[in-house]
Amino acid sequence: MESYKPRGYSVNDFLGWNAVGELVLQPRFQRREVWTAKARSYLIDTMLRQLPIPIIFIRQDIDPHTRRTTREVVDGQQRLRAVIDYVGGKFAILPSHNPDYARMPFDELPEEAKHRLLGYEFSVVVLVGATDADVLNIFARLNSYTERLRPQELLNAQFSGAFKQAVYGIGLSHLTFWRENRILSDRQIVRMDEAELTSELVVAMLDGLQDGKASLRKFYEKYEDHFPRASKVEARLGRVLDEVSAILGQDLRETAFRRKAMFYSLFCVLYDVLFGLPNSPTNPRGRKYRLASLRNNAAKALRDLSDKFDRKHSSVDRLRQAALSQTDRIAPRRLRHTVIWNAFMRAT
Fold first, then answer.
1. Average pLDDT for consecutive 10-residue bins of the chain (348 residues)?
2. What is the pTM of this model?
3. Which helix (H) or strand (E) holds 72?
4. What torsion, rounded to 10 degrees, do the Cα atoms 297, 299, 302, 303 define?
């Protein structure tokens, strides 16, 4: 191989090459499932928002006799096909991705948006003089530096609809809360833990405590096209986080409730108190309580419980076990919920 060169090429560059037959799109080196309409719409929305997308790899060859340049796409076929099809009027943007451009094909976009999309610059690695063996070797080496996708990263790759948009937006809007209270580290946030935690909290709000993270998928599937409760869920989740801050304040980061499992249960208990948790093990009738007059006593009760947890007091042995082992299973979650609920109720 002669060289590999990172460059920037606009959407219009690729459209021009495709129009004159200089762009070869068939996938030879990496098999990809055909993207869904939602994935294609999500890509176009990402580009209209001027957000980055993954690097595209092309193999470039120049025929010295015809002086014709051929650009073979070895990674990025689906991205480029989606853009070419969108500009060609083959699909429109979904409302769940961008309400401003909802159901608009390219020709119906405002002129400014058309210019923005056509001028969007892809990051491209150009492989010059690369053989098939060179290309396969490059991808083998690239893949050796990647980590196995975690469950939330797989959900992120497979879904791009209404539920994902809602929970990701909510999770990101509370980044300061996750970080300042040491619930999530920057490393965890990079691996999408804030999206996973937010997904779990939202699912609990919708359907109560769940048995494991595998249940998340059915909600991503169920609300892929439309999530009518998004605004209500966002408001209520924010209200509960505000109550957590009002009760524990900056002490939260020093308590046992900064642990993800314990925080999940504290959140669910407070949601249960405020709104009634579906299928609650402690509040089956969904009674709602006023917290304003209870915060001081509740704060003391939760700090006392946290102190016993950290000191490994024998009275909270079962709680510790439920917070440190199989933390996302239904039995430990119910136990944690009951213990925290009882501590909270005794304070009232």
1. 80 96 76 75 95 92 88 90 96 92 95 97 91 78 70 85 93 94 90 93 97 90 93 97 95 95 97 96 92 83 94 93 92 96 85
2. 0.77
3. strand 68-75
4. -120
Tokens of 240: 């509960």
Which SS3 state, helix, strand or coil, does residue 5 take?
Answer: strand
Cα separation, 92 vs 38, whole angstroms: 10
Collect all residues with Cβ–Cβ distance below 8 Å to 39 and sequence separation of at least 6: 78, 82, 160
- Residue 155: closest CA among 102, 191, 108, 113: 191
Question: Roughly how many angstroms between the first and final C-alpha of the chain, as a whole number?
Answer: 73
In terms of C-beta density within 10 A (0-12 exposed, 13-18 middle, 19 or more buried), how is residue 220 classed? buried
Residue whose pair of structure tokens reads 């879904």 in the numeric block: 159
What is the chain's percent helix, strand, coil content, to nearest 5?
A: 60, 10, 30
For tokens 């994902």, the residue is 164
Q: Which residue in the block uniquely carries the two structure tokens 């092309």?
A: 58
* Rounded-to-integer distance, Cα 123 and Cα 130, Å: 19
